[in-house]
Amino acid sequence: MSIYAFEDFVPVVHESAYVHPNATVTGHVTIGRDVYIGPGAAIRGDWGGIVIEDGCNVQECCTVHMFPGVTVVLEEGAHVGHGAVVHGARIGRNALVGMNAVVMDHAHVGAGSVVGALCFVPTGMQIPERKVVVGNPARIVKDVSDEMLAWKTEGTRLYQGLPRRLHDTLRECAPLRALTPEQAARRDAQAATYRTWHETRAGGAAAAPGDRTGD
């Protein structure tokens, strides 16, 4: 793990969490139980603090940072998709921030809310619980249904189990030169274990733009 002390602030990482060797965690950072930090993520607690509570995930190439004197909080089960930026904000319990979204200073994403992919949440925006927000600047377009919240929770649960699997099985290896039948069978079995939001809704109405959330 790339873990760095800064001015006597040493990151605190629960033993069950997984911080990828290509992620960087610096300074005044606390990472809870069963948290996943993906490769390329920068969790930088130099000018303020960062608290990532139990069961969160911060995926590949995300940035979490702040202005001086601010503590960023990702509440339990918060889910931050690939390439997202959280700067000086608070992400509520079991909320989802979609791929390449930006959540700015002093914004608060309410519990169970969904921030769409590529969304820009401006400074100070207060998003109530269980709302879907999209666009630049962000706007609230609808409520998070029970079905959508259950789908989000299921996806986050996959990430909560990922740290243990990585601790148990991740290793450097030489590549195969061709796909073996065993690997192909494993791949097919893996594909059957999860449905995207669009697949979950298959057979119903076409997905609305606000459903393009990303994970």
Describe the structure.
The chain is globular. It starts with a strand and ends in a 15-residue tail after the last helix. Strand 19 and strand 20 form a beta hairpin. Helix content is 18%, strand content 30%. The chain is built from three helices and 20 strands. The protein is of the alpha/beta class and 215 residues long. The strands form two sheets. Strands 1, 2, 4, 6, 8, 9, 11, 12, 14, 15, 17 and 18 form a twelve-stranded parallel beta sheet that branches. Strands 3-5-7-10-13-16-19-20 form an eight-stranded mixed beta sheet. The protein has helices at 146-169, 181-191, 197-200, and strands at residues 2-4, 12-13, 18-19, 24-31, 36-37, 42-52, 57-58, 63-65, 71-74, 79-80, 85-87, 90-91, 96-97, 102-103, 108-109, 114-115, 120-121, 126-127, 131-134, 139-143.
Topology:
Elements: E1 2-4, E2 12-13, E3 18-19, E4 24-31, E5 36-37, E6 42-52, E7 57-58, E8 63-65, E9 71-74, E10 79-80, E11 85-87, E12 90-91, E13 96-97, E14 102-103, E15 108-109, E16 114-115, E17 120-121, E18 126-127, E19 131-134, E20 139-143, H1 146-169, H2 181-191, H3 197-200
Parallel strand pairs: 1-4, 2-4, 3-5, 4-6, 5-7, 6-8, 6-9, 7-10, 8-11, 9-12, 10-13, 11-14, 12-15, 13-16, 14-17, 15-18, 16-19
Antiparallel strand pairs: 19-20
